[in-house]
Amino acid sequence: MTRFILTIVALILGIMPDLKAGDKATAAHVYEGRITGLFCGACAGKVKASLRKLAGVAEVKITSTSETGVQKVRIESSSADITKEAAILALGEDARSFTLLDLEKLQ
């Protein structure tokens, strides 16, 4: 029982490492681009799942922009070699529904 309580206290205080944070620490490269064709959460889910298949991808975020019908996609990866073409290939058949307008490496 004491061990359980100590574990809970350690988690609350942040002494034990967060497993998710370890993944993000390895994502040294960030890519951002614009994508169209996302009309619902299911569409965004398909794109995220497809892009997560790219080598080294730790996280994919999709957010709205001021442009009508255009969303921003952000990819965090340990790979320095992600290209627009590779992302389109990762979308597979869904690339017909979604258009990746651009993708550039920020860091």
TrEMBL record:
It holds the Pfam family HMA. GO terms for molecular function: metal ion binding. Residues 34-88 form the HMA domain. This is Copper chaperone CopZ. It comes from Roseimicrobium gellanilyticum.
